Amino acid sequence: MSYLNEPEVLYNLQVRFADRNCIYTYCGIVLVAINPYDDLPIYGNEIVQAYNGQDSNNLDPHIYAVAEEAFKQMSRFEQNQSIIVSGESGAGKTVSAKYAMRYFAIVGGSSHDETQKEISLVEKKVLASNPIMEAIGNAKTTRNDNSSRFGKYIEIDFKKDLTIIGAQMRTYLLEKSR
Predict the structure, then answer these.
(1) Do 5 and 56 reside in the same domain of the chain?
(2) pLDDT tens for residues 142-174?
(3) What CATH number is given to the structural domain containing 117?
(4) 3-state secondary structure 105-124
(5) Which residues does the annotation say bind ATP (predicted)?
(6) What is the pLDDT at residue 178?
(7) Residues at the annotated binding site for ATP?
(8) Which single residue of 7, 40, 150, 165 could bond 174 by disulfide (Cβ 3.0 to 4.6 Å)?
């Protein structure tokens, strides 16, 4: 979509999601995701490999396409990259961030088993910190039984050879009532 207006965006989302069962859509340079409230078979290792090293214009819209573009820009220009995941309560922001981190963990790996073990360990540690954060900062809402009441900034650190060496999660905007 090159000309964005509300009716065209809504129509495009209707066609992609309701008619074609595609949860991802590009609206300009923004990837829009509709939470299907269901597990979909679109996040496996074979899908990661399909997006790895590809031009995002050649493949269907996906969180992996956004992650791949950030990874390519980071490796090509040696500059930090950011992915902003935004939306309403229950939109799937936390899950989308997990999929992006998973993509980086797989793509930032190596063919060596030892490196893969290290990356798996880093990914597990980053993802394991989420339940701790949820325990002190989530609440039940009418739209989401486990709604985050805080924002998260996740930083993933890479070596020069593009393998993951660590990650940090920072929280901000914790609601005063929590």
Answers:
(1) no
(2) 767 777 767 788 888 888 888 888 788 887 766
(3) 3.40.850.10
(4) HHHCCCCCHHHHHHHHHHHH
(5) 87-94
(6) 46
(7) 87-94
(8) 150
Annotated binding site: 87-94
CA distances from 36 to 24, 91, 92, 95, 136 (A): 10, 9, 9, 12, 27
- Tell whether 88 is covered by a domain: yes
Each residue's pLDDT tens digit, 94-107: 889 889 988 998 88
If one counts every other C-beta atom within 10 angstroms of the C-beta of residue 50, the result is 16
Instruction: Show the domain range for 16.
Output: 1-34
Pair 69, 56: CB distance under 8 Å:
yes
The verdict on residue 149 lying in a domain is yes
Residues 49 and 121 in one domain: yes
> Position of tokens 């609440």?
139
| C-beta of residue 146 within 8 angstroms of C-beta of residue 134 | yes
Q: Per the structure, how many domains does the chain have? A: 2
Mean of pLDDT values over 50-54: 95
pTM: 0.81
